[in-house]
Design a protein that fits this description.
Blueprint (H helix, E strand, L loop, with lengths): L3 E5 L9 E7 L5 E6 L3 H18 L5 E7 L4 H15 L26 E6 L3 H4 L9 E5 L9 H14 L6 E5 L20 E4 L5 H17 L7 E6 L2 H5 L1 H5 L7 E4 L1 H8 L11 H14 L2 E3 L9 H14 L4 E3 L3 H10 L3 H19 L5 E3 L2 E3 L1 H16 L7 H6 L1
Parallel strand pairs: 3-4, 5-6, 5-12, 6-7, 7-8, 8-9, 9-10, 10-11
Antiparallel strand pairs: 1-2, 2-4, 13-14
Helix pairs in contact: 1-2, 2-4, 10-11, 12-13
Length: 405
């Protein structure tokens, strides 16, 4: 039987984390050695938390070493539990009380301009991410986590979903590629995840398999909230199956494209001109529009190039995308600004919606603006632009009355 385990991160650059060494012994009680700059203020409470967790899992005798670099209780608890689970088999979970502010769900039609990726094993990037007000926070269990850290990252992501205030951002988790990602679900479905990103998706069958597991876990925990899915298309096969994936299940609300893996699959280099991905991006947009879901573009990887990001967003929007991923908080403002409807779009949308309202009030079966007939899809798009402008504060709720005045 293995009696030694470790978890967490340590080093000069590590902040808001801890490194745990745990040895289960046969006698001597629980002995805790703590190294921390805040030991004078919080040493007693850190040791008490550690002891509570060990006793919760039935461990009466152990040697525990904690190298603390400012870890919050949710991080300490995740790291200690991850070490324990390496040594014993247990279905129990040590859960801190959930934040009342975290008990919210999100809608199918929620605007998803920006999604901020956060590595699932790096707590210092998670703690204050919500203050930047992205539309979504992605806790990443896939590419951003080293293979040997994936298991312990699940405990940290679980605790983050419950105990970090993300300021109403949509709580998203990118699971590992199916089938491995199915093992991630027990750590996120019962713990307030709003949306799951499905990496390297290449078929509707993967979505069906995923939903089967999700429904089993929801039933087990009596969960009624919708859990949305955003498959990520990252291969030539995925592009060719895009529409099939888009209509595979009612809880698929968007498709995203991952251009780093896609261009690697093609054997080409990703360029700023993006000619190598024009076809794939167009296919994704058309598949989404046909299915009535949101097309989401790939991340822009140069975090220092704000002008390049701006141009990329403008091009992305012109193709029909409705949002994109980001890898640094500084990208959020630019993404929101240039995905938002501009003055010309709003002016045109107001005229169309006004014409629609007037036609409805008069009992007319057709809508016209001047001498031009307006089709229902055009009216629907105009209504969406108005709703978006109101939600962003560009227009007030009473914009029609204000115009009349």
């Amino acid at each position: 039987m293995t009696t030694l385990a470790s978890s967490g991160n340590k080093g000069k650059s590590i902040r808001s984390d801890c490194f745990i060494n745990l040895e289960i012994t046969t006698s001597g009680g629980i002995q805790t050695e703590l190294t921390s700059k805040v030991a004078l203020l919080y040493g007693k409470s850190i040791k008490q938390l550690a002891q509570d967790i060990l006793l919760f899992f039935g461990i009466d005798h152990a040697k525990l070493t904690i190298e603390d670099t400012g870890a919050l209780p949710l991080v300490l608890a995740a790291r200690i539990e991850a070490a324990i689970k390496q040594l014993i088999q247990s279905n129990k979970e040590y859960l801190l009380p959930i934040l009342p502010t975290n008990q919210y769900s999100t809608s199918r039609e929620k605007f998803r301009f920006s999604r901020l990726y956060l590595p699932g094993n790096t707590p210092n990037l998670m703690i204050n991410a919500g203050i930047h007000h992205p539309d979504g926070i992605i806790l990443d269990l896939e590419d951003a986590v080293a293979v040997d850290k994936k298991e312990e990252a699940k405990y940290l992501v679980r605790n983050a979903l419950r105990n970090i205030d993300f300021y109403s951002a949509e709580r998203m988790v990118r699971i590992n590629q199916i089938p491995r990602g199915l093992n991630d679900l027990d750590f996120i479905i019962p713990h307030n995840v709003n949306l799951i990103l499905v990496p390297k998706c290449e078929s509707a069958e993967q979505i069906h398999l995923l939903n089967t597991h999700i429904e089993k876990i929801k039933a087990k925990h009596s969960i009624s909230n919708d859990i949305w899915l955003m498959p990520i298309i990252e291969s030539a096969l995925g592009v060719m199956k895009a529409f099939e994936i888009a209509i595979s299940a009612p809880n698929v609300v968007a498709l995203a494209i991952g251009l780093e893996d896609y261009t690697a699959d093609l054997g080409t280099k990703r360029t700023s001109e993006a000619t190598e991905s024009f076809y794939a991006r167009s296919v994704i947009v058309n598949a989404c529009k046909a299915a009535g879901i949101q097309p989401i573009d790939s991340v822009y990887s140069d975090i220092a190039d704000m002008e390049g990001l701006k141009n990329n967003v403008i091009k992305s929007k012109s193709l029909g995308f409705e949002g994109m991923g980001c890898i640094h908080p500084r990208q959020i403002k630019v993404i929101h600004q240039y995905f938002a409807p501009d003055a010309d779009e709003i002016t045109k949308a107001k005229k169309i919606v006004n014409a629609f309202v007037e036609a409805t009030e008069k009992g007319l079966g057709v809508v016209s603006l001047g001498t031009k007939m307006i089709d229902p899809p055009v009216v629907k798009r105009a209504q969406k632009i108005i709703s978006l402008a109101i939600s962003l504060g560009i227009l007030s709720q009473n914009w029609r009355e204000e115009n009349e005045q």
